[in-house]
Amino acid sequence: MPFDREAALRKAEKLLRQGRLDLAIAEYRAVIEDQPTDWNTANTLGDLYVRVGQIEKAVAEYIRFADHLAGEGFLPKAVALYRKILKIKPDEEHAMWHLAGISARQGLLVDARANFVSLAERRRARGDTRGEAEVRVCLGDLDGADLQTRLAGARARVELGETKAAVERLKVAAAELQDKGRAADALR
């Protein structure tokens, strides 16, 4: 017998009105299992998980939805969801990474830098040197990055085994410094 989405949603809404959140969650979960791309239901399910204190499950639903939105090019909606995730779980690295990347693509460099810096600090604190290096590369590649940040990004590329790319970044930085009349800095 085919799954009746409308009946399941009606039942879930009735259970919500009755305050039977666990049973409502089960109904919404059944809808998602039958139709994984029912994004409105996924968002509702995430909200219910937050209400009952199941933050990890809420984050998982929101990430799935936000990643889909970002992949489809709905960046403002994806940004809103990533921010929602960080509001309920401030240390969620997946959300930080994607929010920083979207912000960089949109030219929101202050937001991008803030998220990348937070992410780098988290990775450094737990001893994830490779992960931190990946973030330093992104920071060094941001438009308007200062010389120290760009150099740190180039060094991070070397740590990641991307020597050729690091040399190219250093050449570009040196050329820009030369153009600005800073030959000593370019040589360094």
Question: What would your notes on this structure say?
Answer:
With 188 residues, the protein is an all-alpha fold. 79% of the residues lie in helices and 0% in strands. It has helices spanning 5-17, 21-34, 39-51, 55-71, 75-88, 93-105, 109-125, 129-141, 147-159, 163-179, 183-187.
Short characterization:
The protein has 188 residues and is mainly α. 79% of the residues lie in helices and 0% in strands.
List keywords for this structure.
79% helix, mainly alpha, single chain, 188 residues, elongated
What is the oligomer described by this structure?
A: single chain
Helix content: over 70%
Please tally the helical runs, counting DSSP H or I stretches of 4 or more residues.
11
Main sheet specs? none
User: Kindly, what is the distance between the CA atoms of the first and last residues, rounded to a whole number of angstroms?
Assistant: 72 Å
Shape: elongated
Order of helices and strands: HHHHHHHHHHH
Task: Look at the structure and give the mean pLDDT.
Answer: 92
Q: Which stretches of 5+ consecutive residues score pLDDT under 50?
A: none
The structure class reads mainly alpha
Tell me the radius of gyration: 22 Å
Q: How many strand elements?
A: 0
Estimate what percentage of residues fall within beta strands: under 5%
